[in-house]
Amino acid sequence: MEVTLLKSKIHTVKVTEANVAYNGSITIDADLLDAAGIKKYEQVYINNAVNGSRIMTYVLPGKRGSGEVCMNGGAALHAKVGDTVHILSFINLSPEEADIYQPTLVFTEGENQVKSVEKYEY
User: What residues sit in the active site (predicted)?
Assistant: First the structure.
């Protein structure tokens, strides 16, 4: 048996572009991806804090240090430039692994720049 847990969360970033003409996905500054441990093409969930939309898509890395968070293709219909979103990835673990696992939380400041990276503790 496995359980699905939060792997990482990029908390409170602003959408910098919404491009419906693109094939699909979300493009995220590579610095944010590295901080969260999210890989190229990894499945993520995007929760829009402005309109309540919740979607699933995959990641493409953006230019390092750019702060870009670009909603592409159909994802662009769920967020406007300036919307605040949270980006979440998940992991499947055994119950034993789950007992000791701590997700990574990435907090941002300014123009979607990494402010801090923390392990979630409760």
Answer: 25 (schiff-base intermediate with substrate), 58 (proton donor)
The annotation status of 73 as a binding-site residue, yes or no, is yes
Kindly report, residue by residue over 18-61, the tens digit of the pLDDT. 999 987 799 999 999 999 999 999 999 999 999 999 999 999 99
pTM above 0.70, yes or no: yes
- Is 57 part of any known ligand binding site? yes
Is the C-alpha dihedral spanning 95, 97, 42, 114 positive or negative?
Answer: positive
pLDDT digits (tens, 9 = 90+) for 102-122: 999 999 999 999 999 999 876
Residues noted as catalytic: 25, 58
